Amino acid sequence: MSIKIAAAVVLVFAVFAAGGFYLTRTPAPASEAAQADIGSALPRSGQGTNTGGAAAAPVETAPPSDAVDAEDVREVVIVGDNFAFSTKTLALKSGQKVRLTFVNNEGMHDFRLDEFGVATKKLKAGESETVEFTPDKTGTFEAYCSVGVHRAMGMVTAVTVE
Ligand SMILES: [Cu+2]
Description:
Elements (H helix, E strand, L loop, with lengths): L1 H18 L1 H5 L3 H10 L7 H11 L7 H9 E9 L2 E2 L3 E4 L4 E8 L7 E2 L4 E2 L8 E6 L5 E6 L11 E6 L1
Parallel strand pairs: 1-4, 3-9
Antiparallel strand pairs: 1-2, 4-7, 5-6, 8-9
Bound molecules: copper (II) ion.
């Protein structure tokens, strides 16, 4: 039942996000059904529905701004071994934020991408570190491990930004 309510609240949110004026002009059948499911008078304001939704399913009804942020961030995971990165080529978009997690499987390695100021600590086996950056120029750049001669040994990733 709580899932149904959460779904209904999300639906109402979606309608509000699409344009609240739709409700006043021509109420969509979906919103009518959602209100019937809840079984009580649903406040027309977004704040009212937010309070009710938080009790039913906090994760589902997180503020819409979170969802927008999530869409704008490119999540990348790169694993390091002796002596290579799991990702040989990485295509990114200029202006799109990147949340890169470097996971080190064995040995000691870091992940660097000088052009965008990316540099994890030198990680031991089993450690990981997440860095965030937003590429602001296009081209192909070489990410690398700065430990010893690992870069020369091929511990690199070709990062293309377009
Ligand atoms: Cu290395």
